[in-house]
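okkk here we go again. third time trying to get the S-adenosylmethionine bound version out, last two times i messed up the smiles copy paste (missing a bracket lol). double checked this time i swear
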Amino acid sequence: MALHHHSDHKARFQQQIDNSQEYVFPFIEATHSITSASKVLEVGTGEGGVLVPFIEKGAYSVGVDLAPERIDLANEFLAKEVATGKALFLCQNIYDSAFISLYSQYFDVIILKDVIEHVYEQDKFIAHLKTLLRPGGQIFFGFPPWQMPFGGHQQVCRTKWVSKLPYYHLFPIPIFKAILRWGGEDDNMIKEMLEVKATGISIERFERIIKQTGLKVLKKQHYLINPIYKYKFGLEPRKQLGIIVALPYLRNFLTTCVYYTVG
Ligand SMILES: C[S@@+](CC[C@H](N)C(=O)[O-])C[C@H]1O[C@@H](n2cnc3c(N)ncnc32)[C@H](O)[C@@H]1O
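finally!!
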């Protein structure tokens, strides 16, 4: 069982690497070249796989996460890179004064992949990320818009039909909770689902915060089929149609993932 559990983590780590190599890294490189002089931060790094192509380019890469067990896995999977000083993984809050004093105006690139939709007070958080950037630095965001068919992250539920049912996360909380309970989900899973319901973010809200923070969108790509689905489910990634991208509000319901670089 423990071995099987570990191989799941390893598989997720490999998915992070593959998706980053093919999609995230080229997207970021299109507006900011990565060299051995670059300093890169991933907030919400999980097992650290997203950083691998950056480490391979020689960039000094720091990954932070609030989940200690995921940072332990990153340190295990990337032990050689950590030992040689190419990478550092920390279980730390980026608001900690120790973090701020080390990394104020330090990073060329900051990455948040599948993280901003889990963060409270996103306006304050993004303004804080900006203080960690060097002049000319850029921030990458990849996230699923809240209103997309599985924007509630219900795919992580244990019960099959509850994990495969689209859009019901958009119902008011009592109905949403009743469906989860009916499906047999436990209190922990329901709490997790309600947290995502509290922090889920739309494309419009995200773009508004970027503007209010004094940042500019340098590159964006909306996807009908999220690139990560290729590695998780064998689905071919599909870019969103231009006509859908141009339709505010409605586009959220039909777009499984968006990539943005801002600076
Ligand atoms: C869905 S995972 C994404 C992991 C990885 N970036 C990837 O693309 O596979 C979200 C991660 O963000 C972390 N996280 C959430 N809020 C955070 C915060 N405020 N600071 C650091 N990490 C955070 C969680 O612990 C979790 O590991």
